[in-house]
Amino acid sequence: MDLVALVALTLAGSWLAAPVGRSAPVALLGRLAQGYLVGAIVAGFVAAQFESRGVTSYALPLLAAIGLAAIAAIVRELRRVPVSTERRRGAALAFAVLAVLVLAHTLLALLEVRERPPYPWDAWTNWLFRARAWYLEPGVTFAWAPDAASGATALQVPGAHYPASVPGLVAWLARLSGEWSWPRLLLAWPLAYAATSIAVVAFADQALRSRTLAVIAAIAFATAPFVVTHAMLAGYADLFLTGTLVVALAAAYEWRRGGRLSIATVAAFAVPVLVKIEGLVWIVLLVLALALAARPRLSAAVVAASVLALVATVLVLPEGIHLFGERVVLSADFVRVPYLGETQLTLNPVFGPLVHAALLSETFGVAFWAIIAAALAALPLRRRLKAPRSRAEREAQRVLAIHGGLALTFTLALFAFTVAGRWAVDQTSLSRVLMQTLPLWLILAARVFEPLDPRAADR
Amino acid sequence: MPFSLSGSTFRVWALRIVILAGCAPVHAQTLELTSADEHIAPVGTVAIEGDALVLRGEPGVEQAVVLWPGLELEAEGLAYAHVDHDGLAPSHALSLYFRASDGTHIVDVPQTSGGATVALAAAQGWRGRITEIGLVYGPQGNIPTLVESSIRVHGVTLAPPSFGARFAAAWSSLWRIAPWLGSRNHVLARNTLVASAGVIVALALLAAAIAPRRGRRFAFTVALAAFVLVEFAVWRQWLVLRDETSAIASARAAAGVPPELDWQLVRFAEGVRRHYEGREHELAFALGFDDSYVSDRLRFHLLPLRARRDIAYVPPAGVCLLKLGDEEVETPLLRRETAFGAVVLSLPADAGPECGWISSRSSP
Asked: Which of A350, B47, B230, B301 gives a 20 to 30 Å CA spacing to B351?
C-alpha cells in the first residue's frame, strides 16, 4: 500500500506542478517529478496534523483522497494536447546521458537504503525519530527540553520546532505498509533524488535557450556527490527542500513569464516552508526577488532601507529595535524573529570552510568550479548574451538572477555573521545550504555560456 | 572488489624506478620489513603464510598489531613508507605505527584496492631516531563488522625522498577509498583529484569563453574529460563502499544480529523495551554517557520509551526513573559490554517506593 501511495501522490501532486519543459516527454516527466516532491510534502503535512493529534485512522482515507486526485490527473494527462516537440540531436544525446546517470545513481541509492538502516545523524535524532515515535505512540508530543509548559511527558527532540511534513510522510507510509520497515520507508529518498534531478532539467529546459546547456546544468546537479549522498544516506529533509525550491522557482518563473498567478503558484511557494525552516527564508528571498524584478527602482530603495536599518540598529539605537512585545528584536548583538528564533550576531571566519566545502572536497564535485568559471566568463561573454525578446521573459530571467544574488548574500551573511558559523566549520549546515541553492546557481551559470551554443534557440 | 586497479603494482614499480634511477644513494637507505624479519604481535593474531603476514583481530579485541622492534633508523633519510598488502576488509583501517625518540606515533595509510604509499613528515612525529615500526589494523571505530577481517601484508618499504616516491604517495592519495567520512552528516572528504579536476574544468570553460570557435571544442573536450575523471573516481569509490555495505549486511544477517552499525545497542534497547512493554508512561530514562552518540542512539532505539539526555533529570510525579550510563554501579539492573563501552541500567538509590516493583522484576 505504501508503494501505491508513492505513485498516487506523484500523480496527485502534478496538479500543483509548473508547466515547464520544451518537449512533451520532458514536460511530462517534469510534471511528475514536481508532483512527487509537492505531493510527498503536502501528504506528509496532512498526515502530521492527524499524527500529532493521535488520530491513526486517517491513513486510508488520505490515500483515497490522494488516489482520486491521481485519477483526475491521469484523465487530465490523457486529454492534454501535446506540445510541439523540438528535436535536436545534441540535446537528445545529452538527455540520454542524464537519464543514464540519474538512473544509475537512483539504483545505487535504492540498493544502499535497502541494506543500511537510518544512518545520518539528524535522521535518527530528528526527522525519523519523530516519525518512529508517532508510529509507536500516536499523538506523542515533542519538545526541545520537555517541561511543565510543553508537557512533561513530551519526547525530547532537538528539532522539535522544525516542520513535521517529512516525519508525517514517513509515519503515514509506515501505517499504510502496516509495519516499521526502514528499507521500504527510506525508498522516499532515492525517489526524491530522481524527482529533484528531473525537476531541475525540466525547469532549466524552460528557462534556458540552450537545451544542451540545460541538461549539462542538470547533470552537474545530479552527479554532485553531496546530492547523491543525501539519497544514499537517507533520512534528511534537505533533498525534499531542494526539490520543492526548484518547484517554487519554476512556478515563480512561469508566473512572471505568463503573467498568470494561479493557486498552484501560491501552493508551490508554500510547500518549501512546510519542509524546513530554511524554506521560509528562501521563499521570502524569492518574493523579494519577484518584487525587485517587477519594480527595479525598488532595488535602490531596499538597499538604502537595509543600510539605514543597519546603521540605526548598530549606531543610533544601541539598545536596538524591540517590537511586538519583544517578539521581534533587532539589535547589534542579536536578531529575534518569530519562527526563526534568536540569532546571535558574531563575525565568523567562513571563507575557509566555504572554499573547502564548495571547491576542495568531493562534496560538490566540479559544480562550483564551473559556477566560478561562469562568473568570470560573464564579463567577456556579456555582449554576446541575447536578452529574451519578450518583456515578461526578461522579467522572469531577472527574478532568477536577483534571487541568485540574494541567496548568495544570505548564505554568506548567515554563516559569517550568525552563530550558524559554528556549523560551517564542520561543513554540515554550510554544505546543506549550498545544496539547496545549487540548482539555481547552475542554471544561472549555464545561462552565461549560452552564447557558446550555436544551437541555442531564440525564445 | 569492483574496479580493482593494480595500484599496488604501480606504486611498487614507481618506488623501484627511483631506486634504479640512482638519483640518490637509495640502496643504502631503503629498508624493507617483511615476514622474514623479526617481529612481534602484541595485539590480535599475526600469522606467516608464504611470504605474507596475515593480521587478524579476535572477537572482543578487534585490532591486530604487528611490530618490528629493535631498529636504528634515522628518520631524516626516509620520507615515504609503502605498505604492500592485498586490500583491506570492509570498513577496516590500516595505520603505520612508529616509535621515535619523543614517543610513539600513528600515521593513517590510505585505503586503496591494494597497497599504498604514505608520506612521513616531521609534523607527524617522523624525526630523530626511529626504533620501532609497526602496523595497526582493525575495524573503523573498533566496531565489529562480523565479516572476514584479515589482511595479507607482504611488507613495509621505507624509501628516501624522491620524485617517484612522492608520485606514488600522490597516486595512493588520489585513488584512496574514503570512508563515509563524517557521513552521519553527509560530509565528504577533501580530495586533491576532485579539486584538481575542478581547476581544469574552470580554466577550460574560461578558455572556451574567450577562444575562437576551433579552440572552443578542444577546451570543452578538456572540461568533459576532467568531469568524466571525477565521475569515474567517485563511482569507483561508491561501488567499493557499496560492496562493503553489502558484505557487512550479509555477515550481520548470517549472524542473526541487527544490521545497524551499533547492533549491540539495538539489542540492549530491544531487551529493555520488551521488559517494560506497555508501561511507556510509567517510566523515564535519564541518560549519562561520556559519548553523546551513545545517548542519542539509545534514545532512538528505546522508543517509545522516554529517555532524556540529562542524568540529573527529575521526572514528573508518578513516573519511575531509571538511569542508563557508562558508570559502574554496585547493583546494576542490567549491564552490557559493547563496542561503545559499558552500558549500565540502574535504579537510583533514592528511588521512591512506587518504583520498587521495577527492581523486583526479572532482568531483561
From this structure: B301
Between A318 and A191, residue with greater pLDDT: A191
Query: Which is nearest to A407 in space by CA: A294, A207, A248?
Result: A248
Reported as a single tens digit per residue, the pLDDT across A293-328 is 988 787 778 778 877 877 776 666 667 778 877 778
Q: What is the ipTM of this complex?
A: 0.87
**Chain-chain contact of A117 with B210 (C-beta, under 8 angstroms):** no
- Pair B338, B306: CB distance under 8 Å: no
* Residue contacts between A and B (CB atoms, under 8 Å): 162
Per-residue pLDDT tens over the stretch B344-358: 888 887 776 656 445
Q: Mind listing the pLDDT tens digit for each residue in A123-153?
A: 999 999 999 999 998 998 888 776 656 566 7
- CA A295, CA A293: separation in Å to the nearest integer? 6
Contact B191 A111 (CB under 8 A): no
- This prediction has a pTM of 0.87
With CB atoms and an 8 Å threshold, state whether B191 touches A233.
no
